[in-house]
Amino acid sequence: MLLVVSLIPMPGFAVAPGLTLDPEKPTKAAITKNNGWDNRVAASIASLGITGDATMGQTLPSITSAKAQLGMKLFFTKGLGGDKDAACVTCHHPKLGGGDNLSLPIGVTAEIPDLLGPGRRHLSAGADFDGGPTVPRNAPTTFNLALWEKVLFHDGRVETISGGISTPDSGHGNIDPVAGSNLAEAQARFPVTSPEEMRGFAYEAGNSTAALRTALETRLQTTGAGIDALNSNDWLAEFRAGFGSTADAATLITFPKIAEAIGEYENSQVFASHRFKEYIDGNKAAISTDAKKGAILFFNSVAEGGANCASCHRGDFYTDEAFHVVAMPQIGRGKGDGTGSDDFGRFRLTGQAEDKYAFRTPTLLNVEKTGPWGHAGGYTSLNAVINHHLNPQSAIDNYDFNQLENSVQVDDMKANTQRAIDTLEVNRSAGLISPILENVSLTGKQVDQLVAFLKTLTDQCLNDDSCISAWIPASSDTDPDGLRVNAVNENGLAL
């Protein structure tokens, strides 16, 4: 549609009175200015080796593979929950960014087990229970799990080391001989062992994690009635299809194979095709001018007028897979450190002074979909996260508690987080870390530009229900034990 507009003349571009212009067609001056931004972005990413392709050179599983399909059914069944009221997907749903869209997860003993995300509440458990989330850390996204090379979990307790993988079973720095062949498979062994997440507080109480896993595999092997029986049991047929075998249940339905299949499903959740990649590949209209300005701020150092984000969020996966003291808000129950509601992060594993309050650098791929943000989900907007990085002390001094769910404990948040900020300052002064988290002064507009850039890192599949539904069992799919999570939101609508 053509419109008659009035423009302010710019040098080199005279506008005749009453000239009819197409508002969708940029002026020569605008093109020249935009080319300038493009050139600056190109220079920034070239110096850092950014290609836009985080999957380069990797062989990744497909969600259509038989093993990944088996893994999806295991991921969605409450049959792996001790009390049959929680599943892996309870805290990691594909339509909730591979997480649960809560600051802190609510795993077992929910009022409505299949209600996921905002509105999920614990059942009242007696006078000594306040109804708040019992899981002490935010649920990290399962998206792009296959792209992590070094560590998983906020504290890196599943870690690639020389000769294998270290897990909580083996202890930090020691090879776990049954960890499996990749990080996703290794971590899949642990949510079922957490009383707060999936195990519950009565199932196999007092027994070892090995005994618990044996009990779960026996549950899936056994047909018929019994105190631990499933609603129904067609798992043998599913495992035979998933592993291409005719072996019996005792041979096929083992916990290592359960973890292998779940890991295959998680590793198929690769969402790394985004608008910024399109832009790098040559489509200069793929992102806005504000996003280009945000990219320059993101990739450039403070000395160059940027915010130095890429010093930690580096490469095409936007993480150094390292641990840093950022002093994100410590809300919730914590891990029992310090005051009891504190969380010392990586220090819990290493005992190294510089690791106290240090947590893993998250990837920023799909970051707009993976909130709330921080190891305890203390921020519910990307603007707030960025402002925290610019000046942690100011951010905590002005923290908005209204953003949190009513059930989240916050009594000791400021005191605990202040200790993390103090630790950051001590580390800086002692030279224990490089001063990569510098206080930076940016305008509100510049923060908005950084957010605009971050949103270009979202895989468009996540905005398309027909695309993301490939990672969710269809109603026509088999439900091997009648315990599938048929997820709904707080309004009762299917996710």
Give an overview in words.
By secondary structure, this protein is mainly α. The protein folds into three domains: 3-46, no CATH class; 66-270, Cytochrome c-like domain (Cytochrome Bc1 Complex, Chain D, domain 2, Orthogonal Bundle), CATH 1.10.760.10; 309-439, Orthogonal Bundle (Cytochrome Bc1 Complex, Chain D, domain 2). It has helices at residues 28-48, 66-76, 183-187, 195-199, 209-221, 235-243, 249-252, 255-267, 275-280, 289-299, 347-350, 382-390, 392-397, 413-430, 444-455, 465-468, and strands spanning 3-4, 20-21, 151-152, 158-161, 164-166, 323-325, 358-360. The chain has a three-stranded antiparallel sheet with strand order 3-4-5. The two termini are 39 Å apart. Mean pLDDT is 91; it is low at 1-24.
Structure at a glance:
The chain has 495 residues and is mainly alpha-helical. It contains 16 helices and 7 strands.
Q: Tell me the CATH architecture of the largest domain.
A: Orthogonal Bundle
- β-strand percent reads under 5%
Q: How many structural domains in the coordinates?
A: 3
What order do the strands of the largest sheet run in, or round the barrel if closed? Answer: 3-4-5
Tell me about the biggest sheet?
3 strands, antiparallel
Low-confidence stretches: 1-24
Which structural traits does this protein have?
single chain, 495 residues, mainly alpha, Cytochrome Bc1 Complex, Chain D, domain 2, 3 domains, three-stranded antiparallel beta sheet, two-stranded antiparallel sheet, 16 helices, 7 strands, 4% strand, disordered N terminus
